[in-house]
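Two proteins, back to back. First:
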Amino acid sequence: MATSLQDMMTVREAARECRRTAETVRRWIWEGKLPAQKLGNQLFVRRADVMRMTASAKRSDKQTQMALVAEIKALRERIRRRVGTFDILEALDRSREAHP
């Protein structure tokens, strides 16, 4: 089935749509993650493929963020077990007094 030009986007348009750089979109193409067609000197990608990559990237970003939050919580708990709780404002005041 032929794809119409209206269903195609340039790399720059795809980058804007994904909120990524054009270089990232080109890397996706070179890595085979995003199919593309070259017309003359310009690469074109299907809008549907860009939407798929955007959704995939959002899921990946969300998973990365959730993993980071879990790691931070675990680190915070290890610090509490070793040091106990402390008042950060009091620590800042002591630091400022020691280093006027």
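And the second protein:
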Amino acid sequence: CGEAHAEVNAIRSVKNEELLRESTIYVSLEPCSHYGKTPPCCKLIIEKQIPRVVMACFDPFPEVSGRGVRMLREAGVEVITGVLEEEAIRLNAHFMTFQKLHRPYILLKWAQSSDGFIDRMRSCSESPVLFSNAVTLMSVHRLRAEYDAILVGTRTALYDDPSLTVRYWSGKNPLRLVIDRRLELPENLRLFSDGNPTLVITEKIHEPSGNIEYLTVDFTKPIIPTLLQELFRRKISSLLVEGGAVLLQSFIDSDCWDEIRIEETPFELKNGVCAPVVTRVPDRFFYSGGHLISKIHRR
């Protein structure tokens, strides 16, 4: 946040500025026209006398949508809009969802056996079923690096003791969120003891402690709306839900999701914890290693 926009970086990369007066600048999103953490890109485009802008989609933020185009055209810049608009909206899905729906873009992800189980029935002292191979493990960590926050439930935290960090890919760690209604999770879990930031969703009132913050919510009501409001307030534009079947199903049943990724392995478990149920048919399939990954997009 607060870094130079793509237009600024593109213009700065041109060594011979005389060429800018003969150039066309292509952007996926309407150039900004207001002063925020950075100066307006439109002002720079006009100052550098770039004669033509080709744009995919308008800024979804109501207070500024259309302003950039108007500012450029009034300065004599030719502006072409709507080029590859649908593709640009998908490319900027996190930003678009955050601005339009006032909540983060939500991706639900899980791995399952070919017969539809995400784990066997086990105690917290037993190891979980490992579905991932080296390729899909890197894919998961790459995904984490692309999201602002990651969420798991109480059972996943207790039974799997995950780190939820980016270790097999480069990038920053997402903010870790864990649901712990009664603050019963042990303090020696990796979520609490490795020094990385964690936000605990609980019904208890608790002061922050070191790397751990607490969000108090009313568990007698659905907690997802409250959580999403808090994430929006914190300017978290994307949420990856890696929790167990109950948590994932609650997001599906609440219709609070934008995308689902399912890693399906070729072997069967025969019985165990059933995978979440999705009634929609995936609109894209692709292979990664020996695993079939289905990718579902909301429209």
